[in-house]
Amino acid sequence: MKVAVIGTGYVGLVAGACFAEMGHQVTCVDKNAATVDKLRRGESPIFEPGIEKLIARNLVRKRLSFTLQAQDALAGADVAFICVGTPPRDRDGEPDLSLIYAVAKDIAHGMTGRLTVVVKSTVPVGTGDAVEQIICRTRRDVAVSVASNPEFLREGSAIDDFQHPDRIVIGVEDAQAEQALRGLYAPLTEDGVPLIVTRRRTSELIKHASNAFLATKIGFINEMADLCEKVDADVTELASAIGLDARIGAAFLKAGPGYGGSCFPKDTCALLHTAQEYGVPLRIVESTVAANNARKHRMALKVIEATGGSVDGLKIAVLGLTFKPNTDDMRESPAVPLIRHLQRAGASIAVFDPQGHRQAADQLSDVTFCAGPYEAAAGADAVVLMTEWDVIAALDLTRLRKAMRAPVMIDLRNIYPPEQVARAGFRLVGVGRPHRTDAPATADENVFELLRYRALPSGERGRGSHEELVK
Ligand code: UDX
Fold it and tell me: Is residue 399 assigned to a domain?
């Protein structure tokens, strides 16, 4: 099929390259000449593992091309995807849809025949209706179907998520759009990927509901982590245990410094804005948003407490800046409020991130960007692990400790087992971890100890040790 993709951000570029890989003829449009030039050379303007290979391969196969002109892509197209940004307009969460509406006009002017227009950008419920009105008012001579097809890609694993999705959701108002989208996704649905066909408004809401639910799940485990810290319990074990209940599921139960990124913070606020417009209270989502914002700020207090109550005059090393690994995206990263708070409290900050320095420099001032984790930690009074990059999860902890002035580690992702950190000589503060740093006995060790105990002559079985064993 012939596909036009308008917008080459994360969503548009990944979708365009993956549709080409599936065998479709794809033309991607972007208004930025430098971006189009880069893409034509096979270079990606975004950091996403595997994207450049995919672009290069499909450029060579002549299934993928890039243009500045929407009409080049729209001529003879069967389907046009709108993949432009919907940034928040202001603090109350209302998204700015002006780019979507501008693209709808471009499409209306450029379309040459019957076309299915698909909104892939994350938009509030009812946006498809507005897009349809714009196109129909501008072009009365050509038939158009407007559909919704949200994406559920995660940055860092976007290509795999696109090629192996849990489900594909299409929201359609007519048979033409349904047929076009079924045809487009046939290579995936024939492989067994479930296709949910629904009305346009339901599809739009599915995306927001999905992100709000995942954000809530993270908010829940983060609050459980707070409670674990107070009652001397372990949130990692708690999460594994509750996650084995199939009704709960193990994913998105990793406690940490709070969620960030371009989607969860924006989409939860946009959903609240919609709910407010329609007079429907969404108390759970409201609490999730408030708790996450407060949490991001509270993480700095954790660092201050770990260093004895004040960071004034101390050097703090922060390892990992991006909101999660395998991306250069700093949007809503919990590292930013943490660093700013510590700076206000008098700390000097040295940082290392494998990809985030360029974007971080736009949001942070007076930090020292270091080439590696050990350079950042040199002479530091505490090290904060913010993002679980592979390189940060594979540190030589003894070398790290030796580089530092004081052996304090605040591991906000629970990357390292406490006993490993303790062996390297660190004092560790984690998230939702018990206070002790010695490893609890594993089930096997317990059984072994019990057998050993039973083998002892009865007179030698100390009461204390038995109580320990049966605990
Ligand atoms: C998210 C959705 O997962 C994706 O379906 C949607 O299309 C876009 O938004 P993304 O923002 O790329 O994707 O990142 P994700 O992997 O979902 O993580 C979001 C944030 O939650 C990160 O800050 C991450 O560190 C945090 N997180 C995630 C946790 O704190 N704990 C978890 O268990 C999972």
Answer: yes
Mutate to test the pocket of ligand 1, among 152, 218, 223, 353 (most ligand atoms within 8 A of CB): 218
Whether ligand 1 lies within 6 angstroms of the CB of 416 is answered as no
Q: Is 428 helix (H, G, I), strand (E, B) or coil?
A: strand
* Chain CA centroid to CA 334, Å: 12
DSSP secondary structure code for residue 68 in this structure: S
pLDDT digits (tens, 9 = 90+) for 81-101: 999 999 988 777 899 999 999
Is it the case that residue 442 has pLDDT exceeding 60?
no
3-class DSSP string for 41-64: CCCCCCCCCCHHHHHHHHHHCCCE
- In a domain, residue 464? The reply is no
**What is d(CA 154, CA 412) in angstroms, rounded to the nearest whole number?**
21
Summarize pLDDT for 287-300 with one digit per residue, the tens: 999 999 999 999 99
189 plus 239 within the same structural domain: no
* Contact predicate 84/100, CB 8 Å: yes
CATH of residue 215's domain is 3.40.50.720
Q: Is the per-residue pLDDT at 63 higher than 80?
A: yes
- In the structure encoding, which two tokens stand for residue 2, read together? 């012939």
At 181, give phi and psi (nearest 5°): -75, -35
Q: Based on the fold, state whether residues 247 and 356 are members of the same structural domain.
A: yes
Same domain, yes or no: 271 and 190: no
Range of the domain at 89: 2-198
- Confirm whether 370 is a catalytic residue: no
Q: Which of 166, 198, 230 is the last residue of a domain?
A: 198
- The residue whose CB lies within 8 Å of the most ligand 1 atoms, and thus the one to mutate among 210, 263, 299, is 263
- For residue 93, the CA-to-ligand 1 centroid distance in Å is 19
Q: 220 and 193, same structural domain?
A: no
Out of 177, 198, 219, pick the residue that ends a domain: 198
For the Cβ of 218 lying below 6 angstroms from any atom of ligand 1, the answer is: yes
Q: How far apart are CA 437 and CA 417, in angstroms?
A: 9
377, 402 in Cβ contact below 8 A?
no
Q: 37 in a domain, yes or no?
A: yes
Give the rounded distance of the alpha carbon of 199 from its chain centre.
27
Q: Is 153 in the pocket of ligand 1 (CB under 6 A)?
A: yes
**Closest-CA residue to 267 (of 195, 206, 197, 338):** 206
- Residue-by-residue DSSP string for 194-254: -EEEE-HHHHHHHHHHHHHHHHHHHHHHHHHHHHHHHHT--HHHHHHHHHTSTTT-STT--
Domain count of the fold of the chain: 2
C-alpha 154 – ligand 1 centre gap (Å): 7
Beta bridge pairs of residue 427: 408
